[in-house]
UniProtKB/TrEMBL annotation:
<feature type="binding site">
    <location>
        <begin position="62"/>
        <end position="67"/>
    </location>
    <ligand>
        <name>ATP</name>
    </ligand>
</feature>
<dbReference type="GO" id="GO:0043335">
    <property type="term" value="P:protein unfolding"/>
</dbReference>
<dbReference type="InterPro" id="IPR003593">
    <property type="entry name" value="AAA+_ATPase"/>
</dbReference>
<dbReference type="GO" id="GO:0008233">
    <property type="term" value="F:peptidase activity"/>
</dbReference>
<feature type="binding site">
    <location>
        <position position="20"/>
    </location>
    <ligand>
        <name>ATP</name>
    </ligand>
</feature>
<feature type="domain" description="AAA+ ATPase">
    <location>
        <begin position="51"/>
        <end position="356"/>
    </location>
</feature>
<dbReference type="GO" id="GO:0009376">
    <property type="term" value="C:HslUV protease complex"/>
</dbReference>
<keyword id="KW-0143">Chaperone</keyword>
<dbReference type="InterPro" id="IPR004491">
    <property type="entry name" value="HslU"/>
</dbReference>
<dbReference type="InterPro" id="IPR050052">
    <property type="entry name" value="ATP-dep_Clp_protease_ClpX"/>
</dbReference>
<keyword id="KW-0067">ATP-binding</keyword>
<keyword id="KW-0547">Nucleotide-binding</keyword>
<dbReference type="GO" id="GO:0016887">
    <property type="term" value="F:ATP hydrolysis activity"/>
</dbReference>
<protein>
    <recommendedName>
        <fullName>ATP-dependent protease ATPase subunit HslU</fullName>
    </recommendedName>
</protein>
<feature type="binding site">
    <location>
        <position position="345"/>
    </location>
    <ligand>
        <name>ATP</name>
    </ligand>
</feature>
<feature type="region of interest" description="Disordered">
    <location>
        <begin position="159"/>
        <end position="178"/>
    </location>
</feature>
<dbReference type="Pfam" id="PF07724">
    <property type="entry name" value="AAA_2"/>
</dbReference>
């Protein structure tokens, strides 16, 4: 879908398919996304003045902060990156440069657009790959006198001039027919298991073998590209199936079809106009009260992040990228620190603040059953592959939700992630024995759930380690 087609209500409706509750947060991100569409319909002067209203999501882990941002980006096909604020340090300390966030965002945008463009040329690339496979299976020699622009054009020509002269006319058609039949078999994947010998490039492996050491990511990547253009491509013969060779040839043919300059230009534009950066653990760089250790650089990290959020030009290997209209969504639990502990300049750059609520028993019940590809659907489908039919009853769902809520209250609150832990514990024996038993119908009701969890939950010390 495209963001120009979506109203805020439609965005929220799409998010509801995957995320339970948190209506206020969904509403805020939906409005932020719609404002991008509104901005693009204004005059050029006004467009430059309108900046994104960045969002600060406040709430405990596992309530949907990351999922909201990820689903939002996927919904509109926008370049997206998730980073942890704690991985970045003030300039001068050992750690990642905050500008690397934007470089990684551009790299993601290029990868995304490459995939989109590859779909356009997929049919053409596969056809060329099949022709190359046919050339391996049925080599066709070209006469010295004959100049062929594309060797693949010979496959259906029925032979070169010398061969035509040396063969009776009545044999040409059958030979051409057999070649055509083999080509059809290749295209229809009838020869996929046949082993053939093809030439593969050794260049990439050679470059990676040379590059060792502790260089930074960006320098390493640039150095790899530089060496790649200097070191001549080496070829070696390798045996593989027709299916594997098709994928190899297809990738090579796609590389010939794609215009990388156009892709890079489009990716940079998409990053600048539609990019979304999700910064997690934002509260960890806001904590005050310590004057030594790693906390020395916390305010420095904030001051390094500030220009990017305000709007800066970041130099990347694909050219300069402006961050003026990139949408930043920051998130944190803010148990120890408060948003007001951030430096004032950074606080002002996140004008929309949304507090996400802790999950209730009812929320857990909905998370188990309502979203597309919910947890219950996932586990049912997984065990069905071994012939086990799971039937989650209503009282079983209620029991799982109640146990999850209870353990979150009594131990550490990890939100919806607790459901994964509990379901794994409940179905541990079933999953272990499934391949060795006959087809079975198993009812996951309250009695079954209690039998698996009651002893563990009653023992608070044990539940700290197991659940």
């Amino acid at each position: 879908m495209n963001e120009t087609e979506l109203t805020p209500k439609q965005i929220v409706a799409e998010l509801n398919k995957y995320i339970v509750g948190q209506e206020e947060a969904k509403k805020s991100v939906a409005i932020a996304l719609r404002n991008r569409w509104r901005r693009k319909h204004l005059g050029e002067e006004m467009q430059d003045e309108i900046i994104p209203k960045n969002i600060l999501l406040i709430g405990p882990t596992g309530v949907g902060k990351t999922e909201i941002a990820r689903r939002l980006a996927r919904l509109v096909g926008a370049p997206f990156i998730k980073v942890e604020a704690t991985k970045y340090t003030e300039v001068g300390y050992v750690g990642r440069d905050v500008e690397q966030i934007i470089r990684d965002l551009v790299a993601n945008a290029i990868r995304m657009i490459q995939e989109q463009e590859s779909i356009r040329y997929e049919g053409k690339a596969e056809e060329e790959a099949n022709k190359r496979i046919l050339q391996v299976l049925w080599p066709k020699k070209t006469s010295v006198k004959e100049k062929v622009t594309n060797p693949m054009d010979m496959f259906f020509a029925g032979g070169d001039d010398d061969e035509k002269a040396s063969q009776p006319a009545q044999l040409e058609a059958p030979q051409s027919d057999r070649r055509q039949k083999m080509f059809e078999d290749v295209c229809n994947h009838k020869l996929d298991d046949k082993e053939i010998e093809v030439e593969v490039s050794e260049q990439e492996r050679a470059v990676q073998g040379i590059l060792t050491g502790n260089s930074t990511e960006e320098l390493t990547n640039n150095f790899q590209e530089m060496l790649g253009s200097i070191i001549p491509k080496k070829k070696k013969k390798k045996k593989m199936t027709v299916a594997k060779a098709r994928e190899l040839f297809k990738d090579e043919e796609l590389g010939k079809c794609l215009d990388m300059d156009a892709i890079i230009d489009k990716a940079v534009e998409s990053t600048e106009e539609s990019g979304i950066v999700f910064i997690d653990e934002f509260d960890k760089i806001a904590e005050k009260g310590r004057a030594n250790g790693p906390d020395v650089s916390r305010e420095g990290v904030q001051r390094d992040i500030l220009p990017i959020v305000e709007g800066a030009t970041v130099n990347t290997k694909y050219g300069p990228v402006k961050t003026d209209h990139v949408l930043f969504i920051a998130a944190g639990a803010f148990h120890v620190s408060k948003p007001s502990d951030l430096i004032p300049e950074l606080q002002g750059r996140f004008p929309i603040r949304v507090e996400l609520q802790s999950l209730t028993v009812e929320d857990f019940q909905k998370i188990l059953t309502e979203p597309n590809q919910s947890l219950v659907k996932q586990y049912t489908a997984l065990l069905a592959t071994d012939g086990i039919t799971l039937d989650f009853t209503d009282d079983g769902i209620d029991a799982i939700a109640e146990y999850a809520h209870r353990v979150n209250l009594e131990t550490e609150n990890i939100g919806a992630r607790r459901l994964h832990t509990i379901l794994e514990k409940i179905l541990e024996d079933v999953a272990y024995e499934a391949p060795d038993v006959a087809e079975t119908h198993l009812q996951i009701n309250k009695t079954f759930v209690s039998g698996k969890l009651n002893d563990v939950v009653q023992n608070v010390d044990l539940s700290h380690y197991i659940l």
